[in-house]
Write a structure and sequence with these properties.
- It contains 11 helices and 8 strands.
- Strands 1, 2, 3, 4, 5, 6, 7 and 8 form an 8-stranded mixed β-sheet that branches.
- Pfam families: Methyltransf_25 (PF13649).
């Protein structure tokens, strides 16, 4: 007899084990209350991902972005559909989005996803996007099947497999806390649900500049001697002259995993 690993049980176990307790919506909202104002500054732009999604949205009448946050993807995609809904349970993240002056055809909807999935007032959309927003949902099966019901043409799930910046990856590895492989988890969940899907990895780049070595080391926060940190990060660093002296340009590539599930109306 083959023993099938239960991805939904594994996912739930990982989510409930997170010490911050962010699977409780009020905890997640409190997290974003503290982070919303600095979220954008800490996030890379995703030009290749936006370009790919725009291509797939051609002809779509409506787009629902679930966990839209500050609109990092919603806003650059907004002109690709006649009707856009940015749904999020964090009023603070949505306040940042609103502050950017969204177009009139974009509806901002502050709602818990679990409630939205059963809300007759939220109609299906041609395309549904969930980008890095399912991470703390204990019931992944209910979320995916609910999102698919809302997606007439396409459901797009965006995640990573924890391979972000070299310094954070190393910091977590040294602490024995590698990031969960969420993109792989989502793929396994789609397989378990018998949902065929397209999977691709889009490469994006991130660049930070530092006025001097001290600033770079302060950002890296690695429990290693300075020389070792510079050696490890060396392949990603190029000298960068600033008015104040010799600094660093720190650049790395990372993969965005995109999972595309076709809806019944595709
Ligand atoms: C990591 S941010 C990603 C934001 C945006 N998609 C992006 O890529 O920049 C996750 C967002 O999902 C929202 N979110 C998480 N769980 C949610 C839930 N259960 N219902 C509604 N929104 C949720 C959070 O409030 C947050 O704004």
């Amino acid at each position: 007899m083959t023993v099938q690993a239960d991805i939904f049980g594994e996912w739930r176990g990982q989510v409930l084990a997170v010490r911050s307790g962010r699977w409780r919506p009020e905890r997640d909202r409190a997290f974003w209350h503290a982070q919303a104002a600095r979220y954008d500054a800490g996030q890379p732009e995703l030009p290749n991902t936006v370009a790919w999604l725009r291509g797939r949205l051609a002809g779509a009448d409506s787009l629902l972005d679930v966990g839209a946050g500050t609109g990092r993807l919603t806003l650059p995609l907004a002109d690709a559909a006649a009707r856009v809904t940015a749904l999020d349970h964090s009023p603070d993240m949505l306040a940042v989005l609103r502050g950017k002056g969204p177009p009139a055809h974009l509806e901002v909807r502050c709602q818990e996803l679990a409630d939205a999935l059963h809300d007759p007032g939220l109609p299906p959309h041609d395309a549904v996007l969930a980008a890095w927003s399912l991470a703390y949902l204990p019931d992944l099966r209910a979320a995916l099947t609910g999102l698919l019901r809302l997606a007439r043409r396409d459901l797009f799930l965006l995640e990573d497999d924890g391979l972000g910046s070299p310094h954070v990856t190393l910091r977590r590895t040294l602490a024995g806390q590698p990031r969960p492989q969420r993109a792989t988890g989502l793929r396994r969940a789609l397989h378990a649900l018998g949902l065929p899907h397209e999977h691709l990895q889009l490469t994006e780049t991130r660049e930070l500049t530092f006025p001097d070595t001290a600033a770079l080391l302060a950002q890296a926060r690695l429990p290693l001697p300075d020389a070792e940190v510079l050696d490890i990060l060396g392949p990603y660093l190029t000298p960068h002259l600033t008015s104040g002296g010799e600094g660093w340009r720190y650049r790395w590539a990372f993969d965005v995993h995109v999972l595309r599930v076709r809806g019944e109306g595709a």
